[in-house]
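ingest -> validate -> predict -> emit
validate: passed (alphabet ok, no gaps, 284 aa)
predict: started
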Amino acid sequence: MSEVLDRRLNAYREDLAEERLRGMVEAKRFVEGTPAALSVPVTPLRARPEAGCGTDTELLYGETVRVLDVANGWAWVKSDLDGYVGYVPEDVVQPPQAPATHLVAVPRTFVYRGADLRFPQAFALSMGSRIAVAGEAETRGTRYFLLDGGLAIVADHCIPATGALTDDYVAIATRFLETPYLWGGRSGFGIDCSGLVQLAMQMAGRNAPRDSDMQASGLGRLIEREDLTRGDLVFWKGHVAIMEDEKTLVHANGHTMTVAREGLEDAIRRIAWLYAQPTGYRRP
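emit:
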């Protein structure tokens, strides 16, 4: 039966598989996996444990995973957010510390080496990153959340981990306009078409599958082209765009290599020579 299981969402190899697949696939061992969390701002998740392997998706700071195996400097993990399976360098995952209390709610922000914008930056984080706030401080009228290790982040750039930025996920998507296109990206530093849909919906308190084919087959319900309105999705083979209104869409695309607005009719004509006509329309 293993041939029909999507390897992006099901962890199985000849030597090892996740416990929930027992009886469904053949493997020498089955494991539940060990909880861990991402300790770097963003890292590629790859289909194979090779630095030269392309990126399937990305994991963000503080996101949790289950580590199924560690070998030769690579960890085989499964994301708790969307169930995606792949390999990351072993040193970017660590045992979970304090549970996340907040999410970064702006496309990009800095973590400082203290509660002062004049202090050196330790690193930058993307929207969707998860942090554990240990305290608060105010410096010259700016409020900061304090993190472990003396680090600090602007409090107004965060929302509670259990909350939503807004219920209008299209408004969130448009905040990424001009963000560079990145195959497999799902962060404010670089993002692809389905990553934009997933991250924007996540920040609106909604779940979405990671890849465009998953979204096209199971996100929301099918609608007709003439019914398109704000928030609906337009799918091509290997691509997805978000309707901003009845005539305009927003998408991360390889044409401009950015997140950009484009007229629906213009996009359909431009894309037709490469990907033919849209394959469907959905209302999530």
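The longest strand covers residues 64-71.
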